């Protein structure tokens, strides 16, 4: 849990909206394994989504998955959030 300024929250919301991650489903993404796991939970207004997948090493992992488009959306969103 963290407290951030209103402008940071607005930027987070913009990035999440632009990513269209709220439309994705992690059902076909790689399951967490011995390498690790990534989790992301988003609550925006009355929408609540939660994603879990294995560690993604590179876009090669994304492209070899059963849902490359959805996982690519997740991958790039995580990269964008790391930049904040």
Automatic annotation (TrEMBL):
It is found in: Nucleus. GO terms for cellular component: catalytic step 2 spliceosome; exon-exon junction complex. Transmembrane segments: none annotated. Keywords: mRNA transport, Nucleus, Transport. Belongs to the mago nashi family. PANTHER family: MAGO HOMOLOG, EXON JUNCTION COMPLEX SUBUNIT-RELATED, PROTEIN MAGO NASHI HOMOLOG. This is Putative exon-exon junction complex magoh component. It comes from Ixodes ricinus (Common tick).
